[in-house]
Amino acid sequence: MGGRYLYGGGMGTHHHAEHPWRVRVSGGRRGAGVLLDERHVLTCAHVVGDENERVTVSSAVCLPEWRIGARVVPGSWVYRGGDTRRGDVALLELDQPTPCGAHTRLWCAPLSGGRVRVHGFPRAEPYGISVDAELAGDGGRGGEFGLLNRVSADGQWIEPGYSGAGVAVLDGDHAGHVIGIVVADYRNADARAAWMMPTETIRGYLPDHFGPYVVGQPADRLGAATAGLPELGPGDALRVALTRELKGLLTGGWAGTVVLPGGAAGPDTTWLVRLVRTADPATRAGTSGAEFAAAPRDTVLGLGTIDAAFDARGKTVAEVTDYLAERFGLPVDDPRLTDRLLRREPPASLVITGVDRAQSPGALVREVLRPLAVRARSHGVRLVLGFDGPLPETLPYEVSLDPEPLTGGSPAGSCDAEARVAELAAAEADAAWLSRENERRFRRPPALPRAQAPRLRVRLAVARGAEPSPELMAIARAAAAALADVAAFSQRSRRWSERLDDLRRTLEVNRVRAARHFGDEDSALGDLHDQAARALWQAPIDLTAARRLVDQYAAAADRRIEEKDRG
After folding, report:
1. Does residue 10 lie in a domain region?
2. What is the dihedral of CA 49, 65, 40, 133, to 10 degrees?
3. Residue 233, CA distances (Å) to 75, 243, 263, 286, 476 in order
4. Rounded Cα–Cα distance for residues 70 and 91 (Å)
5. Which of 11, 41, 447, 502 has the CB geometry, 3.0–4.6 Å to 92, for a possible disulfide?
6. HSE (CB half, 13 Å, CA atoms) of 316?
7. Mean of the per-residue pLDDT values of the chain
8. Is residue 480 assigned to a domain?
């Protein structure tokens, strides 16, 4: 962005290095800022010191260096203070335009992971130094700040002088985008973590000032566009149970597709909207810490747990894909959208509701959601799909949180439904581990049965509050049937392993027979052995193809031995 400028009474050529939006802010404390346009800079409130104070903004990479006075835009200084991990942002207006044409925009982007870079101004380096860090969600601290983890134990780390610095993504599809600002103000030189305020949180605090400087799609496009969290009372057993179960799926090691059929995520159902918003950076800016603290146990997600959530009711396929593309920094109309979402690192966490109320639900499932659901589990993706009615027959999934009661039980008789469901949950966890091993070893291994424990736990929570309930017996029977399916899967898996062991033994027996008769002199036979060995040891193993190659080698060995014996 070279050019001529008149500044400070002199004429010259303006030069600057990469990322000229990086500026130094000297106010109540030393800090950094993001140059949004020629008159506005974003920084931390604590760097300014007070909403009525004046500060100086200077260039970090421009030659000649410029310095301009600035003041806080009225109504844009937000500071909560203390260790609340909340509210620390201010928008500055410069006394005159900068002589540099640099500017930038802040992006709404997922916070679940990735490497970022910040450029701050520690006391020892007045012109600044960059630091790399890893995004790590909320770090378990709550509030509205995202955690930045240290990448390297050596070298510079975030310290006083970095607050207000833009957080720029280094890799992935959002590479080069600024997604927030550093808000840490550590005095401990050994600190290995820092904090950032995401773009969506900043916009939540500065809705009347910051909008023109934001690009990208928000994390939450569910329900009505209202601030705050819908209520979730502890007495609402079904909604609390659904919330807890889905939270467990989204925050544990589970991956795959979970469906919410029969209106579990319908337009009037607020439990899912609320759960998504507990992870939403924008909602957290307008929700008090007390409200989160008062929530029923295990019903609040960490900041950024859900990367994208969209209500497809009345929307076209293009509107759904455009949202996903823009949210993840991908080109709109990219024909490889689903493949790129599946290959994202870290794996994506997606919520799409109202699938069967989209303008073309069949096309949405066929072109977007089924390709995602087929490979979600194997790629570590967590995909939540909500339907107002029944599920499409062609959609694969691992878990269903169907809210409808189970039937076929009787209030008479005794059963320990809770123990049965707990036994099933443990068996399904073991089966999931076994399935991952199968998928690592085999091509097209035995199919893992759909997990039934999550839905049964939901119904168990409801039925326990209405004892004696005939549903308890129905839950126990369903758990027993699911246990039988898991046992059958485990037995099929053992048979696959036994078939592999048998084929390996058969290959070795025939190799020893062939070597006893004529050593390694037959190159054609050796080639057949090598092909069979690769098929039996290089994963993923196709047992059918491997058996064919082993049989070919055994038959060839038999022929060679017979020919030698006749000779």
Report:
1. no
2. -70
3. 35, 12, 20, 20, 28
4. 10
5. 41
6. 3
7. 88
8. no
Using the CB atoms, write b or e for 478-515: b if 16+ within 10 Å. bbeebbebbeebbeebeebeeebeebbebbeebbeebe
Lowest mean pLDDT among 83-92, 253-262, 433-442: 83-92
* pLDDT tens readout for residues 121-155: 988 887 889 999 999 888 665 678 888 988 887 87
Cα gap 60→127, rounded to integer Å: 6
Percent pLDDT > 90 in the chain is: 63
Query: Same structural domain for residues 399 and 497?
Result: no
Partners of 311 in the β-ladder: 353
Whole-number Cα distances in Å, 77 to 334, 359, 482: 40, 43, 57
What is the C-alpha to C-alpha distance for residues 216 and 235, in angstroms, rounded to an integer?
38
Handedness of CA 478, 484, 486, 489 (dihedral sign): negative
**In the structure encoding, which two tokens stand for residue 313, read together?**
């009711």
CA–CA distance, 131 with 182 (Å, rounded to integer): 11
Residue 101 within a domain: yes
Of the three residues 194, 216, 238, the one that is the final residue of a domain is 216
Domain end residue (candidates: 372, 404, 436)? 404
- Token couple for 51: 């909403």
Q: Other CB atoms closer than 10 Å to residue 261's CB: what's the count?
A: 21
What pLDDT, on a 0 to 100 scale, did the predictor assign at position 323? Answer: 97
Token pair belonging to 528:
């057949």
Q: Are residues 209 and 232 in the same domain?
A: no
**CATH code where residue 67 lies:** 2.40.10.120
Q: Report yes or no on whether pTM surpasses 0.85.
A: yes
pLDDT (tens digit, 9 = 90+) per residue, 479-529? Answer: 999 999 999 999 999 999 999 999 999 999 998 888 887 666 667 788 999
Q: What is the pLDDT of residue 1?
A: 31
* 96 phi and psi angles, rounded to 5 deg: -150, 160
Q: How many CB atoms lie within 10 A of CB 75?
A: 11
Q: Answer yes or no: are the C-beta atoms of 19 and 72 closer than 8 Å.
A: no
Does pLDDT of 192 surpass 90? no
